[in-house]
Design a protein that fits this description.
Layout: H1 2-31, H2 39-54, H3 78-95, H4 104-124, H5 126-129, H6 151-176, H7 179-189, H8 191-196, H9 201-227, H10 237-250, H11 255-271, H12 284-303, H13 346-349, E1 361-372, E2 375-381, E3 384-386, E4 390-394, H14 401-409, E5 416-421, E6 424-425, H15 431-437, E7 439-441, H16 454-460, H17 470-474, H18 477-497, H19 513-526, E8 531-535, H20 543-558, E9 562-566, H21 570-576, E10 580-584, E11 587-592, H22 594-597, H23 601-606
Parallel strand pairs: 4-9, 4-10, 7-8, 8-9
Antiparallel strand pairs: 1-2, 1-3, 1-5, 5-6, 10-11
Length: 610
């Protein structure tokens, strides 16, 4: 085999390392939506940790010509285990950059800047990291009993790396194919909506960052054990761009796509080309590598942004025919036929508990105020919402209706005032905890999880699922599978009642306006609300369908649910809402039935009633 054997062994190791790293980044970016442009720092951290754990004391080795910490000279696999732990620990401070305040592009820039700063620190701080020189003569695993330069060792090392990569693949698959994986994708699609349904975004991002950091660090440990040296210059932010290119080209959200991308980009364009014979200028091939990678990114983003192996659609209904895409448009709203919804036992299906309708005040505010940059948009709003009533909220554009609803739900913090729910002051309570306590909202604009199917949208909202935690997902389908199947069957029954069974496995983002509104309302109901806050739920919905939805909302209130609905269509207020609150210029103008409000001159002048 000769030199070709060593060449293939090297490619085997690098392929496994790159695939493992891409699996970790795909978990963060492709599944959870975290654009971690500092990802390479975790791989570098794992490589450094594995190196110093496997090396002897720096002061007594080779004349102390290099500086580093630890030097515990631990046997394999402890340096690799330590590296994975170090990667997870390093992720904890990074989590604060991707919390609820810093998201999306801002979080990506924050992570990138942090990675650059850490690289500069490592490169320039001599006592701890040996500066730009890095660390050399890192002991390879089992070098005391095995010839590490032999072909057998090289292939054995590559085989071990491949086995570990396979293990990582099944680990991330186990996590992402659970109910917890659905929650991660929901956070990726629309984190504000996921938060309003009770998802703990900070905890979800923490678990993903830690697991992704551990996977990246382990890949770095495998690499440093093979090449036996560590240099900070080899872990620049540009390497993260290479990994992102692999994810985009392979298919974000698809673990097999991540591996395919790793084999095409970092392995195919970086590692394999290093062993090509020199042709002309020695700098030409490395330069052309970056040109080719850049062109690939642009071409795929332009012509195939979903990648070679796009994220697969998850068929929860079990209907394989659903693999065929279902087309829908806004004209189909008029054709929607509500099915056997009158026969559904909503109390059992939605776990709403025993009906209680004692007309008590369940939600109230005192002097609720919101100002943006010194401009007050809601001022001293004091209202009381009685349990079991469908309370309407109307007013001209800019009256502060949606802002008030957002403050009630906690998705927007009030500037002053108080909010009381079931007798408790919840003014400072986060929105996800309000949702878990039973106060759930919908949004003025379409807020479905676009890349989740209709069934996934509904089931993802169910609180307290056994598989909807990180550790619950690790316990596998035997732990959460039966419960999940029951939840899916409940959702299918509700979909049938609302006449949307044929769309069960269609992506929610492809539905018509009216259908999306139905999905949002059903999803909110599956969050098991006591108080349901609806922000213009009938906007864009065909009038016939809107009245059918109103009938069902009224029946839910008769069973004890409380609903506050912001709506512009006054015929719906006439038909279903009592009382109705009128807002104008951010203040409560009047309250009463629609018939009473039409008799008030100030209401007629501020907002045309009838």
């Amino acid at each position: 085999m000769g030199s070709y054997g060593f060449y293939f062994a090297i490619i085997l190791v690098y392929g496994a390392v790159d695939s493992m790293a891409c699996l970790g980044l795909n978990l963060e970016f492709g599944v959870a939506g975290i654009s971690n442009f500092g990802f390479i720092i975790f791989q570098s951290m794992g490589a450094y940790t594995a190196a110093v754990l496997s090396m002897p004391n720096a002061k007594t080795t080779n004349g102390g010509f290099q500086q580093y910490v630890l030097g515990w000279h631990l046997p394999w696999p402890f340096p690799w285990i330590g590296a994975a732990i170090a990667g997870g620990v390093l992720a904890i401070p990074f989590v604060f950059l991707v919390g609820k305040r810093l998201r999306g592009d801002f979080a990506a820039v924050g992570l990138l800047v942090s990675a650059v700063l850490l690289n500069l620190l490592v490169t320039n701080y001599q006592p701890l990291f040996n500066g730009a020189a890095g660390i050399s003569l890192v002991p390879a695993p089992f070098q005391s009993i095995w010839n590490t330069q032999g072909l057998a060792y090289q292939f054995s090392y590559g085989g071990a790396a491949v086995l570990l990569t396979i293990g990582v693949y099944f680990l991330v698959k186990r996590v992402t194919e659970s109910p917890y994986g659905r929650s991660l994708r929901a956070m990726r699609d629309n984190d504000i909506v996921a938060d309003s349904l009770g998802k703990d975004l900070r905890m979800q991002r923490t678990s993903v960052m830690i697991l992704g950091g551990m996977i990246a660090a382990l890949s770095g440990a495998i690499l440093v054990g093979f090449i036996t040296l560590w240099s900070p210059g080899a872990w620049g932010y540009a390497e993260t761009i290479v990994l992102f290119a692999a994810i985009i080209i392979g298919g974000a959200g698809n673990h097999k796509g991540a591996i395919l991308g790793a084999l095409i980009v970092p392995l195919g364009f970086e590692e394999i080309t290093r062993y090509l014979p020199p042709v002309g200028n020695p700098e030409l091939v490395p330069a052309l590598e970056w040109v080719a990678i850049g062109l690939l990114i642009v071409l795929f983003l332009w012509f195939r942004p979903i990648g070679i192996l796009p994220e697969r659609r998850r068929i929860l209904s079990g209907n394989k025919k659903a693999l065929a895409p279902i087309e829908s448009n806004d004209e189909s709203d008029a054709l929607i036929v509500i099915g056997n919804v009158d026969q559904l036992n909503f109390r059992e299906l939605l776990r709403l508990g025993e009906p209680v309708n004692d007309n008590r005040v369940i939600l109230s505010t005192i002097d609720l105020t919101k100002a943006f940059n010194g401009v007050t948009v809601v001022s001293d709003v004091t209202i009381s919402v009685h349990q079991g009533r469908l309370t309407g909220m109307i007013g001209p554009n800019g009256a502060g209706k949606s802002t008030t609803l957002a403050m009630l739900a906690g998705t927007l913090r009030s500037s002053s005032g108080q909010i009381f729910y079931e007798g408790q002051d919840i003014t400072s309570m986060p929105s996800n905890k309000r949702a878990l306590a039973g106060m759930v909202r919908t949004f003025q604009l379409a807020s479905e999880f676009k890349k989740l199917t209709v069934l996934e949208n509904l089931v993802s909202a169910i609180p307290h699922q056994s598989g909807d935690t990180f550790f619950g997902s690790l316990r596998g389908k035997r732990y959460w599978g039966v419960e999940d199947r029951e939840n899916i069957e409940r959702a299918k029954e509700v979909l049938e009642g609302f006449g949307l069974s044929e769309y069960a496995d269609a992506y929610a983002g492809g539905l018509s306006g009216g259908q999306r509104r139905l999905v949002e309302i059903m999803r909110a109901l599956f969050a098991e609300p006591k108080v349901l806050l609806l922000d213009e739920p009938m906007a864009g919905v065909h009038p016939n369908l809107a009245h059918k939805i109103g009938d069902q909302l009224t029946k839910l209130c008769e069973g004890g649910m409380t609903i506050v609905m912001v709506e512009h269509e006054l015929s719906l207020m006439d038909a279903f809402c009592d009382p109705v609150i009128v807002l104008a210029e951010g203040q409560v103008l009047a309250q009463g039935t629609m018939a009473e409000l039409r008799q008030k001159k100030e209401v007629v002048e501020a907002y045309l009633v009838g």
